[in-house]
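Task card 7
Instruction: Convert sequence to structure tokens.
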Amino acid sequence: MTDTTVMDAPAATAAGAAPQGAAPAGELAELDTAALAIRPDQTMWTPYQRAALAQMGVAQDCPNPVLATFLHTCQTRRLDPFIRQVYLIGRPNKRKGTTEYTAQTGIDGFRVIARRAADKAGIEYGYEDPVWFDRNGREHAVWLADGPPAAARCVVLRNGHRFAAVARFDAYAARWQPSGDLKNQWATMPDHMILKCAEALALRMAFPEDLGGLYTDEEMQQADNGFEPPAGAPVVTGRAEPAAAPPNPAPTAAASPEQPADPGDAVAAGVAQQFAAEAQNAPDLDTWRDIYRRAVAAGVLREPVTVGGKAGPLGVYLTARGLQLQAAARTTTTEQAGDHAA
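Output:
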């Protein structure tokens, strides 16, 4: 799954009926953040939350039992889909002629759940140093070869017990078909991607009550194999090549919204605030979609921002702002239709 594909959804929903509780265009309403918050006593998504999920790529025809199960996952795991801690992904099963849904999260979500579980139980957990394996089975403390490793091992330590997991690269790597070329980050950062799969396996072994039945994006990307790359997508056949530099690279002294930022870096807060300011001034949904895609690429959706004296995660604000613009577009369309009728 790619974030750019997910954010194409608002175009399809903009013409639909206005969700109940949708915020009016203009300043961020007081109810926006509260309306997106998941309550412990909820048994189904509210219309406002469902509209936000649709903007983030959850199909309008997703069955209610699947939606209810996803809500239960968010509640029990304490993960927030509106800041992309967890996703509901639908994949077609051609053999059965159905769509199968999976709750997925990033490796950061796994780490959050594991930390909460350890703190609640009053135990310690940590990691041994990672290990990569080449095709001959030799171990490497650091992967420096041009091609991808054959496997990676991650060991999670929980109260002195070792939970070791090995992930084979060929079992998890996402590839274009029928060429077999590696996709996206599997092409550019193969050692990093396979280690995240190994870490997810080890964490699930160490915390089965908390992580059982939940999978990371990296583990499930191989399930999307079968589609040829769009024009310009990064593709390698034998080795990962560095991305070409732009013809006139800009100075790198300061981060810009176009550059991915480490969420733990102090620069990320300023980048997130800049995205919030751009979204606040966005005149239409197309501009908003571009801002959202760049924020996803920068990895700053969870960074706190302040808009109109209100503070909250950037992802929550961007989602609320998207709903505002969607409502404004619908109002404009209705007024124009009335003028023509008159």
